[in-house]
Amino acid sequence: MTALLNLKFFFTTSVAFSVVFATHSIFAQTETLRSQIDQIQAIENYENFTPNFEYIDQLNRLGERYYNINPDSTFLLAMKSLKASEQIGYAIGKVDAYRNIGAYHNVKGEYDQAMNYFEEGLSIAEKNQYWLGLANIYNSIGLNNYERGNYSDAVIYYLKALGIKEEHLSKLEQSKTLNNLGLVFMDFGDLDKALDYHSRALKIREEFKDNTGIASSRINIALINKEKGDLDEAKKQFNAALKLGLRINNRQLISVSYFNIAEILLIKEEYNEALAYFEKALLIDKERGDEVGIGYDLLGIGEAQMNLKRLRQAKENIQKSLTIFVESDIKSNINKSHLLLSQVYEMENNNTQALYHFKLHKAYQDSIVNLETEKLIQEISEKYEFDRKEAEFLQIQIEKELLNDKRMEKNFRIGVTIILVILLIAFILAIRSIKSQIKAKAFVTRQKNELEILNKKLLQQKNENEQITNQLFLVNETKDKLFSIVGHDLKSPINSLKGLMQYVMDEKLSQNEFLTVAKQLRNEVEQVHFTLINLLNWAKGQMKGIVTDPVAISIHKIVEENIDLNEPISESKKIEIIDELEENTICFADKDQINLIIRNIMNNALKFTNKGGKIVISSKRHGYDFWEISIKDNGIGMSKEALNNLFSKELGGKPQYGTEGEKGTGLGLKLTKDFISKNGGEVKVYSEKGVGTNFTFTLPSAYI
To answer: Regarding the domain delimited by 290-368, which CATH topology (the fold level of the hierarchy) does it fall under?
Structure first.
């Protein structure tokens, strides 16, 4: 199990260390990269383009994002940024460009070339006190030493970066370096110190709700607990990382969590559960195209199946994993694959194959032992060197702190002396100027009062001017709308009326023909008259405001008059109008306005009801103080959208046509709503497409 643990550990390590070179998560989506590329290209396409600070920063940030995806792009973008920075003398741009070029050489394994660029950037960052750039380069140099195996030097540079971040930068920046320090001490085998650094990083990341960072820290803490043998705590941390991975849909985090939970279950001999988690990890790694990850998953599946006595399946999966590990030259897992195959063949009583794979296992094991021995010797040497350098580093820090304390004490004494002198001078000057200040204050107060009076007059005049301007604008707008409606909505029926009258004069008509034409003439005249009344009422309300003259009125009487008035239309469309009003429906309202309300609603109902339809007019008490009047039809109804916009249509807008092409101005409903409101009532409309419409409105009762 150790071999598997180690590789998954290094897998996680590579994820965590890459944060050194990026200000964003390594799991950034392609769309974000595309957006950043588009922004840069848009800047470059400007006419007379010259590079500026924003453009160079965009290049450097994009280069950082590409570090874990396509290092060659990082190099090209960094060179472009360096050239532009030198052109305009942008020091910060140079520092970030040198760091990205060094990062490119790091990933290529060209460590000496990387250091040359890091040192160039370091000198510029120190000179310009560019703290973030300085800390990032120290981190990069730390990673350079870490990858060379110089762990003690790596720690020294990480501590330098951490010191700068603690003094000048945010806690979130500090968490990245704390994480890197934890990983180095995990390599040292100093698990307690590693756990301390990772726990500090986790606390900061939780404070800033950095989900990807939280998951990375939890995985590292879980690996430490796993190495210590605290499997329950390790499983708890892996489950927490898995939950985060699922929430942010980070497939890499999910795969690592599934795999490590399966490893723990395997150690605890819970083979069925382990197998299920290995298979989940395999599905994700196949989806991601991670061949090495697939190799690990297959090896874990094979081991679980072997313990469950599913020997044929186990042998097949272990053999597949062996093929992947041979291609990738991962010796530790080639060794384990041969060991598991020898055990499977032994369980099948195939001693020849069991011996063959066992010998290969021993050969690889001896090779690994030799490498681990060399590494252990190197680590002991590095640990000794690190302890020495750490002591030197701490001593230097103590000396710096003592020197700073002395400087602060000296500066404090000088500062106190200067303050006392300044206070004495200020006191003398204050005494001398007290009389002149009193005189000046009186003069200023007088001027201030005069200015306030003048400002109030100017403000009042301004408000009056604004009111006049607004009134003129509204009057002009009302005039334009009125002319528009007169031009469009009265022109058509008047032309029709003119044509009918000309026809009567030109043609010799029988009595029946004349009665038919006369009936049509009456309808046209009535429609023009009705439209004109609406227009005049609306225009009057717009220009003078709606004035109500409430009296006790019989709604029943007004309804009967409007039924008689609309009889030609109802008879021509064979629409039955039913009066179900209670006889004592007496309201306290303006008679003319209520007459116009009922006429408009009834006109609408007739317009949008098909031949043979029905309109019912009824009333009922609404509380003790109001009557509720309802005019309900079984016509074509309205959609929800039309119902929502019923009272908000623009005057003079697109007209709505009735079931037989009847057209209206749209004023009727506006007047209806305004008049009902002015008379102390409320209006509600219920409608369903193809079922009909019900207009209900309330009016104050005349007798309470």
So the answer is: 1.25.40
